Amino acid sequence: MGIKIQTIKDIRFFLTRELHGIYPAPEIRAIANITIRHVLETVRPHHAYLNDELVDNEQALKIIQIAGELKSGKPIQYILGETIFYDCTIRLNSSTLIPRQETEELVDHIIHENRGFKGNIIDFCTGSGCIAIAIALNLPGSSVTGTDISGEALMLAEENARLNNVKITFLEDDVLNSETDQFEKAGLIVSNPPYVRKSEKLFISKNVLDFEPHSALFVEDSDPLVYYNGILAKAVKILERGGKIYFEINEMLGKSMNQLLDSFGYGDIKILPDLQGKERIIKGIKYAG
Q1: Residues 116 and 63 placed together within one structural domain of the fold
Q2: Residue 85 included in any domain
Q3: What number of CA atoms fall less than 13 Å from residue 44's CA on the CB side?
Q4: pLDDT at residue 289 in the model
Q5: Based on the domain organization, do 99 and 62 belong to the same domain?
């Protein structure tokens, strides 16, 4: 090993050395902080910065194991089996995507724009349940339903709801099937469906391609809006007139998404940039139907 891990400072030195050339320096620092908090079970984030804090042998061995998995390219979130999303602890497995910052931005926008909302909200393609859980916690007057085609993902979403002490209804549903009988009318719909075109795999990092579920990521180039189309077709019957719809989108397909929402009778359509300036959120209000 070359270094004996006895303190938090030793953990940082060890991870920096082991991961050098694999991850950029800022990411290594972030990984180290997440790993230290998890392995040492620190209640307060600042404890991760107490360099002289002692580490026992079991914890040191765990750090070494994690480093080995990180060197294979496996994301830290899958190694630890959880992540933090909008101040919620979200457990993950190979059937669910790792929540991204742009998805947090989508949730943040919905919460701030709908303070005091008291009605039904549906989160299509819920995956780990992170969007539904964050919204339910922050819009306590609402009744939230999350749907997914994957039974395994729904089991994890239910576990995450219990972990965060929030009540959500989860339903198994294929958004490409137009049946809507199991849904009540909703005033707000949100979704982060698969939207990465298969031709864009060339630009996707290896750790995403090797470890995250492709069915939750990729769509055929010939029909990249297929899931949005399916959700909007369901929304014809489900979303109340005057209700709002929010999507996370492919930054390259904003114009096409605008046209799609317009064709379904939505107005006040807006495309919003994320913190990187990329067009990643679209929203609209249902005026027709």
Answers
A1: no
A2: no
A3: 4
A4: 65
A5: no
DSSP E strand stretches across the chain: 82-85, 88-91, 120-124, 143-148, 169-172, 186-191, 196-197, 218-219, 239-248, 266-273, 279-286
Contact 262, 270 (CB under 8 A): no
Assess contact for 1 and 17: CB atoms under 8 A.
Answer: no
Measured CA to CA, the distance from residue 170 to residue 183 in angstroms comes to 11
pLDDT at residue 42 in the model? 65
3-state SS assignment for residue 281:
strand
pLDDT of residue 1: 46
Residues 6+ apart with CB under 8 A from 283: 109, 244, 245, 246, 247, 268, 269, 270, 272
Give me the domain span that covers residue 62: 8-72
Model pLDDT, residue 47: 58
| pTM, rounded to two decimals | 0.90
Spans of the chain below 70 pLDDT = 1-3, 42-49, 289
Closest CA to 274 of 112, 133, 103, 30: 103
Q: E strands within 14-138? A: 82-85, 88-91, 120-124
Domain count, the chain: 2
Q: Which 3 state secondary structure label does DSSP give 235?
A: helix
CA–CA distance, 200 with 287 (Å, rounded to integer): 34
Residue type, 37: R
H-type helices in 144-289, by residue range? 151-163, 206-211, 226-238, 254-263
> Angle CA(176)–CA(241)–CA(287) in degrees, nearest 5?
90
